[in-house]
Fold this sequence. Notes:
Blueprint: E1 5-7, E2 13-15, H1 35-53, H2 57-74, H3 79-109
Antiparallel strand pairs: 1-2
Helix pairs in contact: 1-2, 2-3
Amino acid sequence: MSETPKSNRRGRNVPSRAPQDSVPGSRPQATLRDPATGRYLDAIYDLACDAQANGRMSRFTDVLAYSLALIARDSGSGGAGDVLERLGWHLSRLSDLDAARREAAHAREEGCVPH
């Protein structure tokens, strides 16, 4: 996934934070092609920036976790599993992307061209 900048509603360039393509076996809920996803990412990004600037990241994280717990509870018997599954999928995807970036950087340092 490329880090293609987009502008949020305040005109700041922010990196894309959602998968733009699907991975075999995944069930992506939405992509940046969905306008709602962009709005949600902008809102959370702005809140995270505010929390970071004001030294309240721990509180922000707790509020996000509580919000996910409410969503899971209100989604019925499988809700918690669905929330955890999606969280796990995104964590795995981010880990894979980080590893690929490290490998590409190492290959460039060694004079190789990554595929």
